[in-house]
Specification:
The complex is a heterodimer. By secondary structure, chain A is mainly alpha-helical. Chain A is 66% helix and 5% strand. Helices cover 79% and strands 5% of the residues of chain B. The chains are: A mainly alpha, B mainly alpha.
Chain lengths: 914, 80
């Protein structure tokens, strides 16, 4: 059944199926019902990472070195774990700026530089071509092996069967046709190729099923499960060592390969294309970050079992481990499975080749050919009509060019290398992009010259330490180039550059190329200046979050363009339909009337540039737009100002809600503060009017009595004495009032001199009583004193304490009334404070003014009409003093009379019990 | 919210980098068979599955929080 023609037929049948799927996918997309708009298809399409290198090469690597093959898949897993920091940002930047390829991304970051875009394209083409030819090699090897069925014969390096070589050529061309048909169907500003993505996702399913089927067959068909297989392998020492990693050399290699594959999943042009450019929904990434690693895990489970099983089945060593996936089913005459394995390998190879061809052709066209053609003024490209077909034809030509180049590499060089070595060669080339990308999105200061130097020199080192030796190994160069260095200079040996030994070729090359790449990238960046557009692009890339939604919307153009010029330009590259659609959309958003529009402003031009950049890359778009815009690009300061303003506006609107609630609280506080201020203002006015009144009353009486005495010398002595006593008492009152005002002012200002010490409160109260005793005796007021002995001391200013008691007592004496006026003083210890009560049997204090009486100049009764009975400052001063001592003074409501109380804390350490 | 997410991812990256590299890996670098499977082989796949699982868990949490934030945003819009 498994005859040659059947295999060929099945292969082309399968490729035909791919065409059908892609055709269906495109048709659905045209109808607006795309089938790839879900995270599962997206994740499967990213699995284009698993090429024939995975399918055949991993087993070969595992059969030689054990588990180290797994690093190639752990690296992407790590990178997808780190997606939050890298992939997400790259994706966001790319979507906002209409990035079409990895070269476009890097060129765009460094000021839309055509030089950098061209260099990246060159590195990609030189670096990736071997990788594509690797797919052709895997394809031809597997086909050769399968065609020998039922014999198992390894293809000999020199006797390439013409039919196989021819088949490889046909397949290469079929892939080119596929890429042309579905990758360059039309110029899509978003650069989406839904049909291709659908086909690649389908291929990912096929290769997974095929590989796992072979794995299950080996593990459970040829052996009795994992235990049996590994047990038998463990019996052989040369197989047992595959279960481990030899620590001496392979740990370093392990780390190198992990880092290399981390860079690869980010920097390989086809991975960038499928993960970033073909992404149709940014939220799909959130699911792909675990589904894609899961795919890698599944496809790797059976690598070691197949390798070990193959080595057990073919102990003679005459079967290349790279073919175990195919030869194991063949050896047991399992025809269906062998064919499935072959189709799986075909899937892995074609998927990679197609996406690579599309990615590379886009780069070649957008970054090299278009800018070059646009610069050739004599071509008068700007004046030609529809250029869409020109761009598409350039891409078609590029596709064929890439596939032919790969086929050439395959024919002339590929035979001498194992699959893994070629793959790693390409990985190391792609890794050269990593510093420029990662530096570009986190480091604003990186300059175009720095990126150019890093990329260029890293690439040169890569050529010298990996590519040239691979030519030497294939016989294109003298073998002595590797063994003794060029011209016999030992220090320049490509695998032991500058005498660095003890590393495998890949680690060695990666080390030197990265030292040179990163070193010159940083060194040159630090020592060069950015141009205006570089600084703008750096800000847009690094602060992608800040400018999200505004990126690219920033008006980098000054002046205006005639709408017809712009329209003509876009018609030629993206066609009338998309142009009109974009114009209409933008006009609607801006509220412009497209029909009346003659000239458009900078923002409109920005929209047009982005649309154009999506089709032909940012570097070319810039050149073209510049040709129709009148006026220069705006100055750097202006642009940065615009950017900052825009971002400020966004930030402001983000915070607006928060601020409005803050404002509400603040205005509430303000209102309260205002009320307090008004109250204080009122109090101040009151205070001033009261104080002038208080001062004037004694002054008035002093003056009037003085005038009487002056005017009437005839007044008798007794009356004269009486008048003089009034003058004296009023003067005393005035003095007292002024002293109290001064005291109060000092206390309130905190500049009072306090003489604080331990005071025996009982003694102080007795002294106050002595001072008041004559007054009380005059008014025949009885005293009821309750003063316990041995009260603990309080910490206070003795004189001030006496002043408080005297104030309270004089109030009590003043207001005492009734037939039996009595003043009661009660002192008691209340917990750790001393409580003093001064009670009289007067009229008491009216309701509602209990607090007021402690305010300045507040007296019960109307001070304006009745003669004041005190200064109105006694209680406020008492309150200031008591509070300074750490106590409280207040008025307690009583059945009759007034009950003033104050507390003083005992000195620390003294307790009532002592 | 985003800050917390960033910290979680930072922690997961450190964990993954630790698990997949020597010296932790070298603990399991032995020819012994566990459940009939080479120890390092088993370890790598279990650790790999663990990292993928944690990544899926974080991604799910993230999308739930984003959804919530979106709804909250929408809710506050209608309030305003």
């Amino acid at each position: 059944m498994l005859s040659g023609w059947f295999i060929i037929l099945a292969s082309f049948g399968y490729i035909g199926l791919l065409f059908a799927i892609a055709y269906y996918g495109d048709k659905r997309a045209d109808a607006g019902r795309g089938i790839i708009n879900n995270p599962y298809i997206y994740s499967l399409s990213i699995a284009v990472y698993a090429t024939s290198w995975t399918f055949y090469g991993s087993v070969g690597r595992a059969a030689a070195d054990g588990l180290i093959f797994i690093t190639i898949y752990l690296g992407p897993t790590l990178m997808f774990v780190a997606w939050w920091f890298l992939l997400q940002k790259i994706l966001r930047i790319s979507k906002a700026n209409g990035i079409t390829s990895i070269a476009d991304f890097i060129a765009s970051r460094y000021g839309k530089s055509t030089a950098i875009g061209g260099l990246v394209t060159l590195i990609a083409v030189v670096g990736i071509t071997p990788y594509i030819s690797l797919q052709l090699k895997a394809l031809s090897t597997s086909l050769t092996v399968l065609l020998e069925y039922p014999e198992i014969v390894m293809p000999k390096a020199d006797s390439g069967m013409p039919v196989v070589s021819f088949t490889a050529f046909i397949v290469a061309m079929a892939m080119a046709v596929f890429a042309i048909l579905f990758g360059t169907r039309h110029l899509d500003p978003s650069e989406h190729h839904e049909g291709v993505v659908a086909a690649v996702a389908f291929e990912s399913i096929v290769k997974l099923i095929a590989f796992v089927s072979v794995g299950l067959f080996v593990t459970f068909g040829l052996y009795d499960g994992f235990g049996d297989l590994f047990m038998k392998a463990a019996a052989k020492p040369e197989l047992k060592k595959l279960f481990t990693i030899s620590p001496s050399s392979n740990y370093a290699q392990w780390v190198t390969l992990t880092i290399l594959s981390m860079a690869a999943i980010l920097c390989l042009p086809r991975q960038f294309h499928i993960t970033i450019v073909e992404n149709v929904g940014t939220d799909h990434l959130g699911k792909a970050v675990w589904m894609f690693p899961l795919y890698l895990l599944l496809i790797n489970i059976f690598v070691l079992p197949i390798a070990v099983g193959g080595l057990l089945q073919f102990p003679a060593g005459n079967v290349d481990p790279d073919t175990f996936v195919l030869t194991l089913p063949m050896s047991t005459k399992n025809e269906g499975l062998a064919l499935l394995a072959f189709i799986g390998g075909l899937s892995a190879a074609t998927g990679m080749a197609i996406i690579s061809a599309i990615a590379l052709s886009t780069m070649i066209c957008n970054e090299v050919l278009m800018p070059a053609l646009l610069r050739m003024v004599w071509l008068r490209l700007n004046e030609r009509g529809d250029l869409t077909s020109l761009v598409l034809n350039l891409r078609r030509f590029s596709c064929i060019f890439v596939m032919l180049l790969s086929y050439g590499y395959f024919v002339f060089i590929g035979e001498s290398y194992t699959l893994v070595t070629i793959g790693l060669l390409s990985f190391a080339a792609a890794a050269q992009f990593a510093p420029a990308i990662i530096g570009g999105i986190f480091w604003k200061g990186a300059t175009a010259q720095g990126a150019f130097a890093g990329l260029g020199l890293g690439f040169v080192v890569w050529i010298y330490t990996l590519l040239l030796p691979s030519f030497a190994l294939s016989g294109w160069l003298q073998q002595s180039f590797i063994e003794s260095g060029p011209f016999g200079i030992e220090l320049l040996k490509p695998y032991e550059f500058l005498g660095l030994t003890g590393m495998d070729n890949i680690s060695h090359s990666l080390f030197w190329s990265m030292v040179v790449n990163i070193g010159s990238y940083i060194w040159v960046s630090v020592n060069t200046e950015q141009s205006a557009i570089e600084r703008i692009q750096a800000a847009i890339f690094v602060d992608a979050e800040k400018y999200s939604g505004t990126a690219g919307r920033s008006n980098l153009w000054q002046g205006a363009a005639a709408v017809d010029d712009l329209r003509d330009l876009l018609y030629r590259f993206v066609g009338p339909y998309r142009t009109e659609q974009a114009f209409k959309d933008h006009a609607r958003i801006r509220g412009l009337d497209l029909d009346d529009l003659m000239a458009v402003d900078a923002e409109f031009v920005g929209v047009a540039e982005r649309l154009l950049a999506g089709a032909i890359g940012s570097a070319s778009a810039r050149v073209l737009v510049a040709s129709v815009v009148k006026g220069d690009i705006v100055s750097l300061d202006e642009v940065l100002q615009i950017l900052d303003e825009t971002s400020e506006v966004i930030e402001y609107s983000h915070r607006l809600e928060q601020k409005s609630s803050e404002l509400e609280i603040a205005s509430d506080n303000l209102r309260k503060a205002n009320e307090q201020l008004q109250e204080l203002d009122r109090l101040k006015d009151d205070f001033l009017s009261t104080i002038s009144h208080e001062l004037r009353t004694p002054l008035t009486s002093i003056r009037s009595f003085g005038e009487i005495l002056f005017d009437k010398p005839e007044i008798d002595l007794a009356q004269r004495k009486q008048f003089l006593s009034v003058i004296i008492s009023e003067s005393e009152r005035l003095t007292r009032l002024i002293n109290q005002i001064l005291d109060l002012a000092k206390m309130e200002a905190g500049s009072m001199d306090w003489e604080m010490s331990e005071v025996d409160a009982g003694e102080a109260i007795e002294e106050a009583l002595v001072a008041m005793s004559s007054l009380m005796a005059d008014k025949s007021i009885a005293l009821d004193l309750k003063l316990p002995d041995n009260l603990p001391h309080v910490f206070a200013d003795r004189d001030r304490l006496i002043q408080v008691v005297v104030n309270l007592l004089s109030n009590a004496v003043k207001f005492c009334s009734g037939p039996e006026p009595v003043v009661k003083i009660a002192v008691e210890a209340d917990g750790d404070t001393l409580l003093v009560r001064v009670v009289d049997n007067g009229p008491g204090v009216p309701d509602g003014v209990e607090e007021m009486i402690f305010e300045k100049f507040q007296q019960v009764g109307n001070t304006l009409t009745s003669k004041p009975r005190g200064t109105g400052l006694g209680l406020p001063i008492s309150r200031q003093i008591v509070e300074h001592f750490g106590g409280k003074i207040w008025f307690e409501k009583a059945a009759e009379g007034a009950d003033f109380r104050f507390t003083l804390p005992f000195t620390r350490g003294f307790q009532i019990a002592e | 919210m985003a800050k917390k997410i960033t910290e979680r991812y930072g922690a997961l990256i450190i964990l993954a980098a630790l698990l997949f590299n020597p010296p932790i890996m070298s603990i399991f670098n032995s020819t012994r068979l566990i459940f009939g499977v080479p120890m390092l082989f088993l370890y790598l796949f279990v650790a790999w599955a663990l990292v993928i699982g944690l990544n899926a868990y974080l991604a799910k949490k993230l999308s739930a929080e984003q959804l919530l934030a979106k709804e909250r945003e929408a809710g506050s819009d209608t309030d305003a």
